Amino acid sequence: MAALVGRIEDPAARVDILRNLVEEHGEFDQRAFHHNTFQEFLLRLGTDISSLREASVWPELRAFNSVLIASCVLDELEVGVGCMGIIEHAFAGISAAIGRAVVKRGWMPEDQLLHYLLHAEIDARHAAEFYAAVEPRWKDPARRYYIIQGLELGAYVFNRLYSDLHERARLIAAQ
Q1: What whole-number distance in Å separates Cα of residue 19 and Cα of residue 126?
Q2: How far is CA 20 from the centre of its chain?
Q3: How many domains does the chain have?
């Protein structure tokens, strides 16, 4: 997101993406950084998180992050913005589904479900902000092509991430 902010020519069009970046960093409150709220979510589920810092990064996650970096830094601006927009859009729904499932299964009461409730709420808005940043370019067929490419790429890599992580977890469980 930070790379995209710097690539958007119009300063007014940068503001919403910049706000998104600040929200991802807990509005500058370290306890509210998203990786911290996720770790708190895991703790509330009763997970021992002591080994998280030493955990290796699986290639599935490294591939996902590499595609995001490349699309946001090296590709056409519209590709990066579309890619991030569709991922935020999808994660809003995924977060809501995860939150409902955790509560329905009795793993955690809804009032303790901080991480996924937050994402279900703000990521739909974040997606709209990404889309708004490229909406004026939609009228230009050449730029529209790149927007569509970004949307398709984001949907593809996000689906691959979850599919590949599921497959890895299935293989580990079978061992």
Answers
A1: 9
A2: 11
A3: 1
